[in-house]
Write a structure and sequence with these properties.
285 residues, alpha+beta, five-stranded antiparallel beta sheet, 37% strand
Amino acid sequence: MQRSDFRCVHRLRVRWAEVDMQKIVFNAHYLMYIDNAMSDYWRALALPYEASMLALGGEMYVKKATVEYHASARLDDTLDVGLRCARVGNSSSLFEAGIFSGDQLLVSGELVYVFADPATQTSRPVPPALRAIFEGFEAGADMAEVRTGDWNALGRDAGRLRTAVFVREQGIAADLEADALDASARHAVVYNRLGMPVATGRLLQQSPGVGRIGRMAVDRSVRGAQWGRQLLQALVDAARARGDREVQLHAQRSAEGFYRRAGFAVVGEPYEEAGIAHIAMARSL
């Protein structure tokens, strides 16, 4: 088992509370590390777990977990936890895990999940859609697609995501979040392989040759898995395709690093909008 065997890898740093009297990671914590990697696996599939299980009509229950220890992790070690779906049976799925320090395999593990009725906890066949997602991910397939269009085509899904993120999560007034500019904007929505929207944004024409990206929102349960980056790139590509020479945006300060990594630079002083700190940024095309 090698780190390169895994498409999904979760990185963590060993904390003081996870070390035992032998000054090595307490054995039970390795299962917790693997479970943390499982959360990253669902994000990599672009599947908000709760909503996805509801749509699929079941739940994933751990039937069996085995761990084999090869070497120990210590305080402040940086570990990479790889997780892959090795096999999908009729009602169960086998996941293999590897915990690495650099290239050294410290712990290997297996988890058997059973897809079951949440009311009775009796097994059900793995839905074909979920089977295809597991198999597609491990084969290197894309887990989401970006669709662009006008408000008539995408407004329902875009609006639902924006309401969840801006209104319910961040507390922005609904009458501030929605505006008349939606009607003329180019919208983009990222859809997972169940057809569920997981990210959205829009592109306006700020002035001739200058685009403005805004209303960037990603479902909180799949953040950190590059879906926001994929969405942003689609909007930048749309601006370039129509001949814009520059794109601008007003970023929340908490997301400034995200936009910097995508090639945007600060062009103004910080300011407050809707009670949230913002900064103006731009990228040349």
